[in-house]
Amino acid sequence: MTEKKQREQLTDRLFAHEQPHTDFRFDASVARVFPDMIRRSVPGYTTIIPMIEVITDQYVQPGSNCYDLGCSLGASTLAMRHGIRYDDVTLTGIDNSADMLERCEHYVALDDHPLPVTLRCEDILDSRFSNASVTTLNFTLQFVAPERREELLTRIASATRPGGVLILSEKIRFESALEQDTQTRLHHEFKRANGYSDLEISQKRAAIERVLIPETLQQHRERLIHSGFDQVILWYQCFNFVSLLAIKSAGSQA
């Protein structure tokens, strides 16, 4: 197979032709083109991933556990891996899509780093966490049913060591209709600039709107505090995509 043909196969064209409406799923077809899809769909993704390494380096604690929840193909898992400077830290990536994890295993194997990575195929709502210093939810919580989100965050906070953190990246919505419309328009222009057609944008939006449920920044802040974190910092925003750092203070009880 030629290099050009390989690139074409890895290019996201899943919504390029009219098709019956179905809800978005992280299946084999999405896993195959996911790096291209997320790079062209999520503004700032290529900034957030290396910064996860920087944040992990700052907050990882010796003898602790680190988790990437909803790890997909492992981009944030590998960023965390390179930010961990202690050899007695365990790193676990969890995702409920076997198709995504199959490709994740490949990327982990190709990565030249000695720290072992454990991958688990399970629903993060059923996962057990303990002794955590750094946990990442990188565009994952938005796919969890809203009524289950606080439960998940409370278990993460309870498992987090004093001084530990949660990195939470999300697509958000806005209280102001004008701001919502403006940010949505700019996001769609970002997609068009990356080669997506109006048909692709429309069909992807229809497929994902019942699966990805965004909330306001204020809702995220309040829930994180209520769940047991002591400080919430907005460290990144581009249009309607943000990343938050939720910190458990050194005086908190794990």
UniProtKB/TrEMBL annotation:
Keywords: Methyltransferase, S-adenosyl-L-methionine, Transferase. GO terms for biological process: methylation; tRNA wobble uridine modification. GO terms for molecular function: carboxyl- or carbamoyltransferase activity; methyltransferase activity; S-adenosyl-L-methionine binding. It catalyses: prephenate + S-adenosyl-L-methionine = carboxy-S-adenosyl-L-methionine + 3-phenylpyruvate + H2O. Pfam families: Methyltransf_25. Its EC number is 2.1.3.-. S-adenosyl-L-methionine binds at residues 45, 70-72, 95-96, 123-124, 138, 205. Residues 68-164 form the Methyltransferase domain. It is an enzyme of class 2 (transferase). SUPFAM superfamilies: S-adenosyl-L-methionine-dependent methyltransferases. Homodimer. Belongs to the class I-like SAM-binding methyltransferase superfamily. Cx-SAM synthase family. Catalyzes the conversion of S-adenosyl-L-methionine (SAM) to carboxy-S-adenosyl-L-methionine (Cx-SAM). This is Carboxy-S-adenosyl-L-methionine synthase. It comes from Marinobacter zhejiangensis.
